[in-house]
Amino acid sequence: MVTLLSWLGRTDLDRAKDDGPASIATIALKGPLLDEVIILASTWDDEWHDYKEWLKKKLTLAGRSKTSVVIQRVRLLSPIDYSSITKVMHKQLGTVCSNSDKVYLNLTSGTPAMAAVSVLLGKGTAKCQLVQTSPQGEIIEVDIPIDFAAEYKKSSSSAISQLVSQNPALNRAFDTITAKSELMHRVIRKAQKLAYSDLPALILGESGVGKEVMATAIHNASQRANKSFKAVNCGALPENLVDSILFGHVKGAFTGADKNHAGLFEQADGGTLFLDEVGELPFNVQVKLLRALQQKEITRVGDTVSKSIDVRIIAATHQDLFSMISDGSFREDLFYRLAVGVIEVPALRKRPEDIPDLISTLMLEINRQAHTHPLFESKKISKDAINFAISYSWPGNIRELWNTLNRAVLWSEGEMISMEDLKSSVLSAGKDAVKETGFTMPGDLQQYIDSIKKDAVIEALESCSGNKSKAAKMLGLNNHQTLNNWMKNLGLED
């Protein structure tokens, strides 16, 4: 089996309309005899069918009718996003190589990022031959005279010493998180440092702010990235099965246990276990979780033998765990075991600078998902609608924004989503507070002002290492006595 694997390029589509071959067609028609041509594409899907039919016709005329042509839909964050391109190419190349004796990897079609990833992955695959075409239609087999493994070994020592002496740059794993605001930049910098460690982590934040997205990014940036990431919503676990789901069971442990079962701790061994809404765990399970964290071992339900496990725990909750500790519903010792590295993801209303980029990302995904709908046409969103989104408080945070955009795309009549389309798609309790100007009344006004002052005081004190005189100056106050009065009124004296 001989295969050509290529990204789809804009030039390939445009030249085909004029009945002229570009890179893919040149290799398929003039190069070595191929059994199949696999084309990876993420955009221009309305032109795929015509291109595929044109290429098959050309192959037939060239006496190569047995060559099959497949256009494979793939999902990319963008055509220049190295992370998603690498993930797609790694998977596709692995599948193609397992089924083929020889794979030709086209470097000419697609973006420079796609070509770079193809070189890096193709160079290390024995079955792969890198190939490109010239503007004159020549086919050139590419041989890159570099041993990447040797070069990496040569530079690794100096690279490690530099990393020790420098502050870490933002990891690609956090690129999936929209962070235009300085507030989110600070959160991501903390998460980055936490990712490099192997400490337990606790992610706090309101429902819908993206706590699982943050947990996934921390895992992907950690040394456990190539191991399992398991996630579970503790609030959705049936109380009679929570032990079995987390710690596993042995055959005969209870009615219906007809075989041994590895729980999530064992499934995540070597990797990360994300416990969403950890505050919902029953008290007796909290005891077992504490033991797993302290002793690094678990016992399956019905078993007498403990198993050693190596799992990093990332927990998350929107609840006030301090209040739960006070009323006895959450163990204090478990809290301090989990709350070693604490990350608080801010509510969407506190990071309005991020909303336009979030809308852009979400609209791209919504348009892709809805494309299969028979009556669907791609939608755009107006500037007025975006301004409304910026002014609205989004009590349900990113999850509410996602659902509202989905409704707006579904129900809007035109190609452009207007401010009225978006406003009428809002279902939250705060909808009645939205005025025609787009202004949002955030509940009790004094409480809202106090929450802003409280956040500002905390951030100022943190940035000044607790120096009240400097913090007061940063806040524009006359002296630190005024700051003391603010802190007293806001309950921040401690």
Automatic annotation (TrEMBL):
CDD domains membership: AAA
SUPFAM superfamilies referenced in this protein's UniProt entry, alphabetically: Homeodomain-like, P-loop containing nucleoside triphosphate hydrolases
Listed GO biological process terms: regulation of DNA-templated transcription
Alphabetical UniProt keywords: ATP-binding, DNA-binding, Nucleotide-binding, Transcription, Transcription regulation
Domain Sigma-54 factor interaction stretches: 177-410
Keyword Transmembrane (UniProt): no
Entry-linked InterPro entries: AAA+_ATPase, AAA_lid_NorR, Homeodomain-like_sf, HTH_Fis, P-loop_NTPase, Sigma_54_int, Sigma_54_int_dom_ATP-bd_2, Sigma_54_int_dom_CS
One GO MF term attached to the UniProt entry: sequence-specific DNA binding
Any one Pfam family match given in the protein's UniProt record, by short name: AAA_lid_14
Protein name: Regulatory protein, Fis family
Organism name: Vibrio xiamenensis
Lineage of producing organism: Bacteria, Pseudomonadati, Pseudomonadota, Gammaproteobacteria, Vibrionales
